Amino acid sequence: MNRYRTLFISDVHLGTPGCQAAYLLDFLRHNDADTIYLVGDIIDGWRLKKSWYWPQEHNDVLQKLMKKARKGCKVIYVPGNHDEAGRQFAGMSFGRIKIRQDAIHVTADGRRLWVVHGDLFDGVMQYAKWLAHLGDWLYSAILVLNRWFNKLRVRMGYPYWSLSQYLKHSVKNAVSFISSFETMMARETHRRGCDGVVCGHIHKAEIKDIDGVLYCNDGDWVESLTALAEYADGRLEILHWNHIQGIAPPVALLTREVSVEVRVRETLTVDG
């Protein structure tokens, strides 16, 4: 069991076929922390409103988190846009899990980090939410196509390759969106007087300095299988669970039934 001072996890999207719940459950079994932040989009309310999808593994993830909370781990849940219904319960606790609009985390070396999902600083979410829903549908369609494409690649002896990650990191508009989002988050963090920010939303794990502000994105559990960890001395690191375990995350799930009803998680330029 690996022990950390803090773990940050976001964009799990429980309730969708794309969620890699089995790998997150494996991660939670092998890693523990004094504090765990759930940084939004843990449960995908957008998807569940359209059709119910909730296999046992998704329930097991929630049970595991609640079990950690019962055993003394401080679990703080900061809802995102896909689980925005949880924001109405900010300030309350459920099963010893505290729900907050956002939070301030102080690292072991004294840095103040603003913890927030990040969707409120996404112009598409704020001014064209219909486009975000359309993008969400397109993203899920790409994920389904990606599963079948990689199933063929595995049979031919090739490694896993992510179409959506390729598009997101290669298409000019997508790269521009990600850069703009990161810059906006850094500026807002500076305005709030914090040393850094921990967010999710765009499904791109990253730790970097932006104009003197520490920008941290903990990634997602749909494709990249990443979490942000703080060690006892305050050092921060992105944990890539598929690299640590030596697995190709989505491949093991390629043989599972794919839901006929497809919904979207982002446009080619927007995650979340």
What does this protein structure show overall?
The protein is α/β, with parallel strands linked by helices and 272 residues long. It is built from 8 helices and 12 strands. The strands form 2 sheets. Strands 4-5-3-2-1-11-12 form a 7-stranded mixed sheet. Helix 1 packs parallel to helix 3. The longest helix is centred in the middle third of the chain and has 27 residues, at 129-155. The protein is globular and about 50 Å long.
Return the average pLDDT rounded to an integer.
Answer: 81
Strand content: 15-25%
**Global structural class:** alpha/beta
Q: Strand count, sense and closure of the main sheet? A: 7 strands, mixed
What is the spatial order of strands in the main beta sheet? 4-5-3-2-1-11-12
- Globular, elongated, flat, extended or rod-shaped: what is the shape? globular
- Poorly predicted runs: 123-134, 171-175, 249-272
Rg (CA only): 18 Å
